[in-house]
UniProtKB/TrEMBL annotation, chain A:
Keyword hit for Transmembrane helix: no
Source organism of this protein record: Klenkia sesuvii
Name used for this protein in its record: ABC transporter ATP-binding protein
Similarity-based family: Belongs to the ABC transporter superfamily.
InterPro entries documented for this protein: AAA+_ATPase (IPR003593), ABC_Ni/Peptide_Import (IPR050388), ABC_transporter-like_ATP-bd (IPR003439), ABC_transporter-like_CS (IPR017871), Oligopep_ABC_C (IPR013563), P-loop_NTPase (IPR027417)
SMART domains, sorted: AAA (SM00382)
Residue ranges occupied by any ABC transporter domain in the UniProt entry: 14-264
SUPFAM superfamilies (UniProt xref): P-loop containing nucleoside triphosphate hydrolases (SSF52540)
Keywords: ATP-binding, Cell membrane, Membrane, Nucleotide-binding, Transport
UniProtKB/TrEMBL annotation, chain B:
NCBIfam families for the chain: oligo_HPY
Family stated for the protein in its record: Belongs to the ABC transporter superfamily.
Residue runs in coiled coils: none
UniProt xrefs under InterPro entries: AAA+_ATPase (IPR003593), ABC_transp_ATP-bind (IPR050319), ABC_transporter-like_ATP-bd (IPR003439), ABC_transporter-like_CS (IPR017871), Oligopep_ABC_C (IPR013563), P-loop_NTPase (IPR027417)
Domain ABC transporter, first and last residues per copy: 20-261
Keywords: ATP-binding, Nucleotide-binding, Transport
Protein's name in the database: Oligopeptide/dipeptide ABC transporter ATP-binding protein
Species for this entry: Klenkia sesuvii
Keyword field contains Transport: yes
Length: 402, 342
């Protein structure tokens, strides 16, 4: 029984329910993804944004079944109504590239250096269509390369990846992703490794890929500018969970979760000449090892009250398919996207080191150094704080990918 | 205003060429990567000069060559009236009190085996500024407080701090000698946005409080617009446009500056979806073999779409010099024209 023949045409293209991913490590169970839900409708672009370590990449690797065997994945991922979690690799191979395809961040490593780019495209085509002749596959590969804007495609199919620049390689990766007319393309930071002028080219190619294949897309990025230009809906992740979901304009102009508001307020603007102070968010994202109860954003939140520390808020409906995980979302709404209304611009000076040895706080968040961690800043309130994970240390997902 | 003042740092015709060795038994030099290839800039007291460009354009090499960390192969760097090019390590050392650098990667630029106290105290000891332990402790305490960290935590190691905090330690170390000029080489690009804003605010405060001048090297033009007084745009080892901040962002005259500004996505859905975008083709050419004449012509939207063959001839043969386009505004294009992009 193959997956693709047993699908329900009325079901949503891709639906993810209560997805949880845990990685066992020496420091304890790293709960990298903590209950992600989303549905992707046909033709839609869903932007997933979050800072490093927020679990946005792990979510997508779980959908594709590409996590290492040590990962403990639970919940449900349905492609056209058919469960993907728990499928054997053989069955998943029929979905990957055909039903759901993926574009990775680094075009320098996602192509095989010992095969010609043409061969790598043809391979994708022939693995899903055994009857395809090699001539037909070659012709289709040339078409695809032309579509993604590679000049002289008929000759360049014979090139090796090292003969291409980074931008050209990412075009090849996109050609491979669109080769079999997939229903869903998952793009994980597709332009992060590229310069801005090349990024603009690649974003244009992605739009072409979507219109050529009619695919829906999940676009994962930390760049709020890229999402603003291309996404229909946005899902904001923090500490492994969605904390706000909504239409792109609602998220940018009427954010209802303090984290989203803070994120937008901390961005310097290219199109603004006023020397307005930025509004940083104090502290750092929490470590996802042994999270304390309560809202994970509470230690950094300007609206923090005692109630925030008891239970983690669920996504509350705030209208028009817009949900936010905050018990004081009405107050956030009154800021109408003005971060300065809520955030103190000097807040980030409350910074204190993580990995404290004898700090007074009751929680123990373990950091990668193995030190029991909890920062207590000189001016932060004495409520329990999660151990702040460092932003750039390899998060479990990155460490696993290496 | 700046033209009447004396620059604190003046760079003329700076060159940094890296030799390319042949593959044979005898390693002959077969060419050179012209990472910085004749660069002029002036930094005035109390100003922030942003230096922007894409990866490989030579902006970091410029910063290192100015500080003599990678000796320049040609040109001149005059700092407070003294020539720096050609100085050896010993002659350079006393000058380092006045010009310091903060590096991009706060994970690689701090010694993981030293506690924060030692990292910040090291410059003070090397330069013999204090031999008194109590005074040393007091100075480190003040420095650490200045950058917004808790002085109680100076007995900890860099690994116990987050990225933003480590970058603050790097800044405290650079400030230890009370320099006049800081070269900031991508100081916030390794940080997540919510952390980046705090470090940018700190840099702005320090500049005001301590009367510093910054050479702020970055690829993120939004950050550069936020912090700089003037901005210089680099392409393939040369400055192609320099202007006061708002002048550059509101009336860019070089086609590359225009394309660069147009390529950056704005975090505003309505604006972003209604923009006219200039998309330039191709990638940055190799600095080992830059195009003849104007270096940007191989990707230039104006060269490709607007110019006649006779006009193009000039682009291919004559390298455009930096010419005045307005008050303190200069750009290197034969057919420069101000355009509104944002």
């Amino acid at each position: 029984m193959s997956i693709t023949t047993n699908t329900d045409p009325t079901a949503p293209l891709l639906s993810v329910e209560d997805l949880n991913v845990r990685f066992p490590t020496e420091d304890g169970l790293v709960h990298a993804v903590r209950g992600v839900d989303y549905t992707l409708r046909s033709g839609e672009v869903l932007g997933i944004v979050g800072e490093s370590g927020s679990g946005k990449s792990v979510t997508s690797l779980a959908v594709m079944g590409l996590l290492p065997a040590s990962a403990r994945v639970s919940g449900s991922v349905k492609y056209r109504g058919q469960e993907l979690l728990g499928q054997r690799d053989r069955a998943m191979s029929r979905v990957r590239g055909k039903g759901v395809s993926m574009i990775f961040q680094d075009p320098m490593t996602s192509l095989d250096p010992v095969y010609r780019v043409g061969y790598q495209i043809e391979e994708t085509l022939r693995v899903h269509d055994r009857t395809l002749s090699s001539q037909a596959a070659r012709a289709r590969a040339v078409d695809l390369l032309t579509m993604v804007g590679i000049p002289n495609a008929a000759e360049r199919v014979r090139s090796y990846p090292h003969e291409f620049s980074g931008g050209m390689r990412q075009r090849v990766v996109i050609a491979i992703a669109m080769a079999n007319q997939p229903d869903v393309i998952i793009a994980d930071e597709p332009t992060t490794a590229l310069d801005v002028t090349v990024q603009a080219q690649i974003l244009e190619v992605l739009q072409t890929a979507l219109s050529e294949t009619g695919a829906a897309m999940v676009l994962i990025t930390h760049d709020l500018g890229v999402v603003a230009g291309i996404a229909d809906r946005v899902l904001v992740m923090y500490a492994g969970r969605p904390v706000e979901v909504g239409g792109v304009e609602d998220i940018y102009y009427e954010p209802r979760m303090p984290y989203t508001l803070g994120l937008l307020g901390s961005l310097p603007r290219l199109d603004s000449s006023t020397k307005q102070r930025l509004t940083p968010i104090k502290g750092a994202p929490p470590s996802v090892v042994n999270m304390p109860p309560g809202c994970p954003f509470a230690p950094r939140c300007p609206l923090h009250v005692a109630e925030c520390d008891t239970t983690e808020p669920a996504l509350l409906d705030v209208g028009r398919g817009h949900t936010a995980a905050c018990i004081r979302t009405d107050e956030v709404g009154r800021a109408h996207g003005e971060a300065a209304a809520l955030f103190d611009e000097t807040a980030a000076d409350d910074d204190a080191p993580r990995g404290g040895r004898a700090d007074a706080s009751g929680t123990v968040g373990t950091t990668d150094t193995g030190a029991p961690g909890d920062p207590v800043g000189e001016r932060t309130d004495p409520t329990p704080q999660p151990g702040t994970g460092s932003l750039l240390d390899p998060t479990p997902e990155e460490a696993d990918r290496r | 205003m700046t033209s009447t003042r004396e620059p604190i740092l003046s760079v003329r015709g700076l060159e940094k060429h890296f030799p390319i060795k042949g593959g044979g038994l005898i390693k002959r030099t077969v060419g050179a990567v012209r990472a910085v290839d004749g660069l002029d800039l002036d930094l005035y007291p109390g100003e922030v000069l942003g230096l922007v460009g894409e990866s490989g354009c030579g902006k970091s090499t410029t910063g290192r060559a100015i500080l003599n960390l990678q000796p320049a192969t040609g040109g001149s760097v005059v700092f407070q009236g003294r020539e720096l090019v050609g100085l050896d390590r010993k002659a350079m050392r006393p000058l380092r009190r006045d010009i310091q650098i903060v590096f991009q990667d706060p994970y690689a630029s701090l010694n993981p085996r030293l506690p924060v106290f030692d990292i910040v105290a090291e410059p003070l000891i090397i330069h013999g500024l204090t031999t008194d332990q109590a005074e040393l402790r007091e100075r480190v305490r003040t420095l650490v407080e200045t950058v917004g960290l808790n002085p109680e935590h100076t007995n900890r190691y860099p690994a116990e701090f987050s990225g933003g905090q480590r970058q603050r330690i790097g800044i405290a170390r650079a400030l230890a000698l009370e320099p006049k000029v800081l070269v900031l080489d991508e100081p916030v690009s390794a940080l997540d946005v919510s952390i980046q804003a705090g470090v940018i605010n700190l840099l702005e405060d320090l500049k005001e409080r301590l009367g510093l001048s910054y050479l702020f090297i970055a690829h993120d033009l939004s950050v550069v617009r936020h912090i700089s007084d003037r901005v210089a745009v680099m392409y393939l080892g040369k400055i192609i446009e320099v202007a006061p901040r708002d002048e550059l962002f509101d009336r860019p005259t070089h086609p590359y500056t225009q394309a660069l500004l147009s390529a950056i996505p704005l975090p505003d859905p309505r604006l972003e979806r209604n923009r006219q975008r200039i998309i330039i083709t191709g990638d940055v050419p190799s600095p080992a073999n830059p195009p003849s004449g104007c270096r940007f012509r191989t990707r230039c939207q104006k060269f490709a779409g607007e110019l006649s063959d006779t006009q193009r001839e000039k682009c291919m043969t004559v390298e455009p010099p930096l010419e005045p386009r307005g008050p303190e505004h200069r750009s290197a294009c034969h057919y420069a024209e101000a355009r509104t992009i944002l």
